[in-house]
Every structure is written in C-alpha cells, then in structure tokens.
Backbone:
C-alpha cells in the first residue's frame, strides 16, 4: 500500500462535512476531520490482531512531516513487539484504576455516530441508576453481583423494560473498558435479562370490532376530507401498516401500484411490499398534488419544516376528536383488518405476510418469501371496497 500520499495543501483544504472524514497518508496514518472542522492526526495499527488507534495531536500544530515521523516511530515499536499504548494504559490503571464514571464519560463522548439525544438518554440513565453505588468504583473491580444488585433495584421499582436498556448501555462501556485493558470482563454480558428481570404487561392497541366499523366510517366521513390526519387514517386502514411506517413514508418508496418499505425501516433482512388499492393510490395522488418538496408523503404541518414527518400523535388526536378515544387507534386498523381477512376466508399466511409478521418456523419463513403478492393485492382491494361501503 502506498505511503506519503497526502500533501500539506490537501490537509489545509480539507473542509468539515456532515460526517467525520479521514484523509489517508498510508501506513495507518490519517488526518481525522470532525464535523466541527477540528483536524487531528491519528494512526491505526493492530496489537495481537485487535485494531488500535493512537492520536498524534492536532493539525497544523503537528505538521504532516512530524506526523509521518511519529508514525514511523510507532511502526518501529510494533516491529520490536512493543505495544505503543501499553505504558500509558498501565500508568492510568496504576494511578487510580479508571472509574465507571470516567469510563462512561470517555466512551459516550467518543460515540460520534449517534444522536445527541440518544447519548444523553444513555448517560443520564447510567448516572441516575448506577453512579450512586458504582460510579466511584474502579470499573475493573465491579463484579456481576455488584451490577446485578443495582439493576434489580430498578426492576423492583417496576422498570422492567428500562432496566434492560441500562444493562445494554453500561455493557457497551464495559466492552470498551475490556478492549482498553481497564477491565478483565464485561459483567453485564453475564446477566441474562429474561431470567434476571420481570416483564411489563403488554397492553394491546385499542381496536374496534368489525361490527363497529360502519359507525366509525360514517363519523369519519363527516370530517374535512382534506385534513392530512383524515387522509393518513384512511391510508393506514387501506394498507394495514403501522403508524410509524406511514409517517415515514417517502416518495422514493412508491412504485407502480406498490409501496416498498426498505428493510432498514422494518428491522428485517428484506423489504416489505405493500400492494396499493385504488383507494390508497387516490390518497397518495392527493398528497402528491399538495407536496411542498418534502421527501415525506405526510410531512409535518408545523411551519415549513419539510425535513420532518407528520406528528406521531396526529392520527390518534383526530380519532379522539371524533369520539373514539380509548376505543380505537391508528394501529388498531391492523387488528380490524386481520379479523376481517380471517373471517372472509383469506389465506392466513397471506394475512400475516401483509401484516409483516414472519412465521417462527424459519423454513416456513423462507418459503413464504413468495410474498403472496397477487393474493394480497386482491385481498387489499376487497378490503378497501368493503371499508368504503361501510360509510
């Protein structure tokens, strides 16, 4: 691999972008350019097969020539079997033993790829629930029992779901500490949430019975048909999708008579295909005529923020306004539609596929990738015709 490929002009001209950049000079040396424009020399290398990174200082205080000399010196140490960071790590541990609090702060500050809100949620949770008893402790001295005792306090308080997140977040810190030689094990990884913690009672989304649909549709027909929340509610019903999927619906996901929801939004390894009935396509064309340049089919109605989708509560508030609070939700259409489809005698696998539910049987799941598209297209059109007839 070629080395010394950068020029000082390249370094001076490097500008910040939406994501951090790395300008490579070869031999592991690169200039790291943050989104704020700060430039730092770093050199990447491996010790015992594990990737390591050492900072050589900021540019231009550390020149390109000086960074190359430092890189070559580091490579010389590696050839002699010397870990360049070993002395520094040993000195840090010998000094006090890095505490859980110090490790958390260092780890989460380094997570540049996540949103600030996610970082704040993780650090605040660890601070609130673990710092009082464990924050001052050397991270390498914390055992599984120590950590479990604090997490069980949360579980006893009824925080059955949140305690699992805290275990995951602090576990990432322990993994970091292990990689940096500050801890021998990750005690969080030794805790099995399904056995250690309780479970919150799952609440089903409110949904109408099929016999209640006519009155709902008649009441919905009294609303202004141009309201985005009304159109969204109808499209949610026609497509059997989740509210979040509808809110995030993008123009580039729409094909001829088909809505292709990308796999990264579905948290699966394949796209979810939604056949569009005539009624669904009519609503989409209405929204297209009203489009203000947003990537979203249903952009927020607040000001000119075209970079944001419709509020997650817009449809729910509309349903409450027409008198169905606590009796129906946007998500409830999935229950109503599933009931209708089964009572109408449609293939159960096609119904589950339309709801984006995959069989627990992996072999059957692979077989069902046939997607039942023709049958699902027929089913959704019959459902849309039935739904309109109720009004």
Residues:
């Amino acid at each position: 691999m070629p080395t010394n490929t950068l020029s000082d002009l390249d370094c001076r001209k490097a500008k910040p972008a939406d994501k951090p950049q790395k300008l490579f000079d070869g031999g592991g040396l690169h200039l790291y350019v943050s989104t704020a424009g700060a430039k730092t020399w770093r050199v990447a290398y491996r010790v015992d097969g594990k990737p390591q990174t050492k900072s050589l200082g900021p540019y231009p205080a550390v020149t390109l020539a000086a960074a190359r000399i430092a890189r070559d010196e580091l490579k010389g140490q590696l050839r002699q079997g010397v870990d360049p960071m070993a002395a520094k790590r040993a000195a840090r541990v010998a000094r006090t033993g890095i505490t859980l609090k110090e490790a958390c702060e260092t780890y989460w500050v380094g997570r540049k790829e996540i949103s600030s809100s996610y970082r704040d949620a993780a650090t605040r949770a660890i601070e609130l629930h673990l710092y009082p008893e464990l924050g001052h402790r050397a991270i390498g001295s914390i055992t599984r029992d120590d950590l479990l005792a604090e997490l069980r306090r949360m579980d006893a308080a009824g925080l059955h779901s949140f305690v699992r997140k805290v275990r995951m977040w602090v576990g990432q810190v322990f993994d970091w500490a292990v990689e940096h030689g500050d801890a021998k094990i990750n005690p969080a990884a030794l805790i099995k949430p399904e056995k250690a913690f309780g479970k919150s009672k799952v609440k089903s989304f409110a949904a109408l019975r099929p016999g209640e649909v006519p009155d709902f549709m008649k009441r919905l027909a009294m609303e202004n048909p141009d309201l985005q929340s009304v159109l969204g509610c109808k499209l949610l019903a026609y497509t059997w999708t989740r509210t979040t999927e509808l809110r995030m619906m993008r123009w580039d996901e729409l094909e001829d008579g088909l809505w292709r929801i990308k796999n990264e939004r579905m948290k699966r390894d394949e796209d979810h295909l939604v056949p569009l009935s005539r009624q669904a396509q009519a609503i989409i064309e209405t929204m297209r005529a009203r489009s203000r340049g947003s990537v979203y089919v249903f952009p927020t109605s607040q000001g000119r923020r075209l970079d944001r989708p419709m509020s997650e509560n817009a449809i729910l508030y509309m349903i409450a306004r027409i008198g169905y609070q606590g009796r129906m939700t946007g998500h409830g259409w999935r229950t109503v539609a599933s009931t209708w489809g089964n009572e109408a005698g449609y293939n159960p696998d096609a119904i589950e596929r339309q709801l984006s539910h995959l069989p627990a049987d992996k072999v059957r799941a692979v077989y069902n990738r046939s997607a039942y598209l023709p049958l699902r297209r027929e089913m959704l059109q019959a459902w849309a015709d039935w739904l309109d007839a109720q009004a």
Confidence is low (pLDDT under 50) at residues 360-367.
